[in-house]
Design brief:
Structural class: alpha/beta
Distance between the termini: 28 Å
Low-confidence stretches: none
Helix content: 25-40%
Mean pLDDT: 97
Strand order of the largest sheet: 2-1-3-4-5
Order of helices and strands: HEEHHEHEEH
Shape: globular
Largest sheet: 5 strands, mixed
Number of strands: 5
Number of helices: 5
Length: 143
């Protein structure tokens, strides 16, 4: 989560919402990191999770991220939850819950829907207060 939080802070340099993500391989090696780049790239799909998953897939030369863990500072949205399932990520770890857009526990549970062909293990609330504070500070500065 340290690296994901560092990535979240990197998003601040280009006024993106500070969310960071890291994909770890089966032996714990870092395969891909990312932070929100929507403002930077004018790409609505450039969420931290998507950026990290794309980089991990390139590093592996494989779209299936079987055996991999995704660590992200905020509960994924529906788009990112769908990407997690599609990439066959084994374990999702997230920090803060997202009551407005969370699609893993808060509003929906996309990743554990029994109708889908893959369901990762989920661990939520890791360093929740710290992850939430980064976001709260960001939005407080904009109000």
């Amino acid at each position: 989560m340290d690296l994901a939080l560092s990535e979240a802070h990197a998003a601040l340099s280009h006024a993106d919402v500070p969310i960071g993500a890291v994909v770890l391989g089966p032996t714990g090696q870092v395969l891909g990191v990312g932070h929100n780049e929507r403002e930077l790239t004018a790409d609505p799909t450039a969420h931290a999770e998507i950026v990290a998953v794309r980089r991990a897939a390139r590093a592996l030369g494989e779209w299936r991220l079987a055996g991999c863990t995704l660590v992200v500072t905020l509960e994924p949205c529906t788009m990112c939850a769908g990407a997690i399932v599609a990439a066959r990520i084994e374990h999702l770890v997230f920090g803060a819950y997202d009551p407005k857009a969370g699609a893993v526990a808060s509003l929906f549970d996309v990743v554990r829907d029994p109708r889908l062909n893959h369901r990762p293990r989920v661990t939520g609330g890791i360093r929740e207060a710290e992850c939430a504070a980064v976001l709260a500070d960001f939005f407080a500065d904009r109000r």
